[in-house]
Amino acid sequence: MLKEREKKLKIYLTSRDACFTKRKEGVLDEEVLLLTQQLLSSNPDFATLWNYRREILLHLETVRSEDEIQRLYEEELSFLEACLKVNPKSYGSWHHRGWVSTRLPRPDWARELSLCERCLSLDDRNFHCWDYRRMVVRVSGVPVDQELQFTDRLIGSNFSNYSSWHYRSTLLPLLHPGSPEAASPQREPPTSSACSSPSTSPQTHSHRVCEEQLLKEYELVQNAFFTDPNDQSAWFYYRWLLGRAEREEMISCVYVSREGERVVVAFSRPVNALSVGLLLVVDGQPQQVNWRSAHPRLRHSPMWICDLPPGTISDTSNEHNLTVHWTERHTHRDCALYTGRSESWCRDSATDLELFRSELSVEKSSVLQSELQSCTQLLELEPQNKWCLLTIILLMRALDPLGYEKETLAYFQTLKEVDSMRTSYYSDLCSKFMIENTILKMEYAEVRVFSLCEKNLSTLCHLDQLLLVTHINLSSNQLLGLPPQFAMLQCLEVLQADDNAIENLEGVYHLSKLEEVSLRNNNITQLSDLKILTTCPRLARLDLRGNPITQIANIQSQLAELLPSITELLL
């Protein structure tokens, strides 16, 4: 047996070396085509030989008639089927098949779809085959509704077919597109209806699904997870259904301050203002300004800042009109700075943008309420089911995030007990939801004070929504640091972050209005941890009591030298 294997290996290596030699010599004939075929039949993952084979086929195209080329490539497809039997997940075989199919003078796309169905019936998670099928569908123009019926068949035969659920999520927005987001102040109103004709360009689609179809999907997926509550495929799809569509790309806020003559622009998503074409116009005059993000580490940021030339808007007796143009998206935002005002802003609130939840129709709200009851009943039968617990939380978020806040916190606690390996993930997700709720409460109260003390926060997010906040209280949480995104709190005057485990103040960067910082009972250990505070010129009060740094000899004099603006230092 060993000698036979050694003999086969010797033949294989000899043939391989012969191929390399012929390729170096530029030989492109049928003899080499046969030689590469013998090698690839036993090892279809030899990328170099597939490349050589394509070179030969391209050469033969130049010396053969169309009918001969058709036969040549049909034989190649038959050979590839044999290779896929050796390894159904061969990168090289699927890639080469895609190449051959596009070179065929008269391709048989029905045959290719049939091959995909056969392969997926053997392994419904063969992502190579799924990728190839999507290419065939795109090139051959298979109708979207036909592909959706294909996912119906696969899901009907196996609810655990994750790939089919995922493929379905890409098809539904094309076949049943939802209404576009409401026009923003600087855009023309949309003209399409709630369930417009199917889009053929997924790259330009908003990924929304019309409500009528969405309600049908809830019923389909509920059947799946009630059949097998522990299978994750249907739960993941259900979570996608409950998710919000991608936000419209827009300027969400323009803030202007006479102090420092500064303009801050916030976007609905992170951008690179240096490359998207941002133009600032003040009183009809375009301004030559340099845009920068709130922190040097944020190359793509939802917030960008610029300083106007001295004297542009400093006189409080003058009124000014500013316009920020986002030329890449053909959109703009206006902001007026009135006489006697030191600052002004024009923004869409989180509630206006439906940032943390979507407005529900009576019908959809009723259906989701019914879904919540069904999941609650399922949880009574499966009290340890983490997917059911998480879905209940998401349903509560979709229905009424503030009204269900107490119940949500209780379910998160149960989740951490049931799925202890993912405790950190659930803590971060819970922190995200608590921050969202607090932003909504702040906006309803129309205040600029943000308090999140004693919420067990493990992370900070949505900091771009806190641009206008002047006072923030993050005390008694589980924060380890203030991230670079914290520098987006450009109006912040007072920071309270006592009783955490903070050891990194990276985000307290160039906050020009910051006057007070309280960091009692954290983990600030050395002078270099506080060096970032030198970028905050108005800082006058610093409380470091209960930090290891207070044990350093002569720390008071060192801090006085490092931060000369401080008039009240508590150690």
From TrEMBL:
<dbReference type="InterPro" id="IPR025875">
    <property type="entry name" value="Leu-rich_rpt_4"/>
</dbReference>
<keyword id="KW-0808">Transferase</keyword>
<dbReference type="Pfam" id="PF01239">
    <property type="entry name" value="PPTA"/>
</dbReference>
<protein>
    <recommendedName>
        <fullName>Geranylgeranyl transferase type-2 subunit alpha</fullName>
        <ecNumber>2.5.1.60</ecNumber>
    </recommendedName>
</protein>
<dbReference type="GO" id="GO:0004663">
    <property type="term" value="F:Rab geranylgeranyltransferase activity"/>
</dbReference>
<feature type="compositionally biased region" description="Low complexity">
    <location>
        <begin position="189"/>
        <end position="204"/>
    </location>
</feature>
<keyword id="KW-0677">Repeat</keyword>
<comment type="similarity">
    <text>Belongs to the protein prenyltransferase subunit alpha family.</text>
</comment>
<dbReference type="InterPro" id="IPR036254">
    <property type="entry name" value="RabGGT_asu_insert-dom_sf"/>
</dbReference>
<keyword id="KW-0597">Phosphoprotein</keyword>
<comment type="function">
    <text>Catalyzes the transfer of a geranyl-geranyl moiety from geranyl-geranyl pyrophosphate to cysteines occuring in specific C-terminal amino acid sequences.</text>
</comment>
<dbReference type="GO" id="GO:0008270">
    <property type="term" value="F:zinc ion binding"/>
</dbReference>
<keyword id="KW-0637">Prenyltransferase</keyword>
<comment type="function">
    <text>Catalyzes the transfer of a geranylgeranyl moiety from geranylgeranyl diphosphate to both cysteines of Rab proteins with the C-terminal sequence -XXCC, -XCXC and -CCXX, such as RAB1A, RAB3A, RAB5A and RAB7A.</text>
</comment>
<dbReference type="Pfam" id="PF07711">
    <property type="entry name" value="RabGGT_insert"/>
</dbReference>
<feature type="region of interest" description="Disordered">
    <location>
        <begin position="178"/>
        <end position="206"/>
    </location>
</feature>
<feature type="domain" description="Rab geranylgeranyltransferase alpha subunit insert-domain">
    <location>
        <begin position="251"/>
        <end position="350"/>
    </location>
</feature>
<dbReference type="Pfam" id="PF12799">
    <property type="entry name" value="LRR_4"/>
</dbReference>
<dbReference type="InterPro" id="IPR009087">
    <property type="entry name" value="RabGGT_asu_insert-domain"/>
</dbReference>
<dbReference type="GO" id="GO:0097354">
    <property type="term" value="P:prenylation"/>
</dbReference>
<dbReference type="InterPro" id="IPR001611">
    <property type="entry name" value="Leu-rich_rpt"/>
</dbReference>
<keyword id="KW-0433">Leucine-rich repeat</keyword>
<dbReference type="InterPro" id="IPR032675">
    <property type="entry name" value="LRR_dom_sf"/>
</dbReference>
<dbReference type="GO" id="GO:0005968">
    <property type="term" value="C:Rab-protein geranylgeranyltransferase complex"/>
</dbReference>
<dbReference type="InterPro" id="IPR002088">
    <property type="entry name" value="Prenyl_trans_a"/>
</dbReference>
